[in-house]
Amino acid sequence: MTERTDRTENIKDTKNTGNTGKYDVIVVGGGAAGLSAALVLGRARRRTLVVDAGRPRNAPAAHLHGYLSRDGMSPADFLAVGREEIARYGVELVRDRAVDVTGSDDGFAVLLAGDASSEKGRTVRARQLVLATGLADELPPVPGLAERFGRDVLHCPYCHGWEVRDRAFGVLATSPMSVHQALIVSQWSKDVTLFLHTLGEEELTDDDRRRLDTAGVDVVRGEVAGLVVEQDRLTGIRLAAGGGEYAREVLFVAPRPVPRTELAARLGAEMSRTPFGAYPLTDERGLTTVPGLWAAGNAAGFAEQIVNAASRGYRAGAAINVELLMADLDAAGRR
């Protein structure tokens, strides 16, 4: 894979310089979902603040894929362009972390840590709040995985499969779902080995064995102890307890998703427990069970790819504008 370029050093954050008024909307999270929501709101002339901690999930990847017209773009460039676009419409952006939040009848108060472009302990307020905080990938504790994640240690064939097609694949099994992953990646290579690792052989069902055999996926027993890397390339998988080495060029893993949904839970949003973590329940627009609190992207669900996250952010932004408009019209009509 080619080295990604990074334009973020050329992008200046927009600061809130002394204006203490309340925002219409605060968006916590500056990824695809958050920037998309902010773009819609800025174009709708809503005073909007984006709080971006600068921890995008796809930072280890050299390119993003599957996003029509943006296929092959680096994640850093994608975000830089998004920041430029929201700035055209007066949307403010601070590099900071939202560390606490409270709600009241007239909106939300968000406490900022004061990480980069805002003063320590500053509180910002808004009538509506969008959580686009995403999730983090927790990798299995195998030495070397983290250093090569996004390069030749991968998790999503739809994101990276084309670029590594026809190479020698390995799949690190950490749960029964790893069988599914091995079957899926066999569409991109006919040389696939499933390393059972922490998955017991007895956990393979008859259907698993039949499908793996039909797909031509080899199965190797034993725990994986580490990776073999030569000249900055993955060349093999090393088993524990003298189990030997297997030549592989790519290793697919299934990280444990860790949703960044603490703020939603703190505000009392009803959460949905899934095998991939707990996420706030939302309606089709992204509204949670807390009035005025919205969730988009991976803050609302595990399976949101970048193109889906942008779509969900757009939908939430448009819905929020209508909510604010109707509330203002109703309030004016009661005067």
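Second entry:
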Amino acid sequence: MHIDELSNEVEQVSAFYAERHGIDRTNDWFLLKLNEEVGELTQAYLARAGQARDKGRTKEEVETDFRSELADVLAQLLLIARRFDVDLSDEVEKKWLVWKPL
């Protein structure tokens, strides 16, 4: 799936969730929510690395949690980019891909 298509899908889910739960998706909310998701990713990573409690979860469940939190961070990042009208594909090309070996 192309990044723009993914962004559209994520926006639909986020808007639905916010409406259903009475969340006002302000500029601050978008950034704070990303921070929350990064924190959850950190927790999942630490459990995966054996540096935090596994909370009784199996190794497979810990791995699933880590992967799910990566998805949450990406989705929230896509929402922020969309909110502030940032073309992430273009920005990655300008910031990262200029260093791609020839």
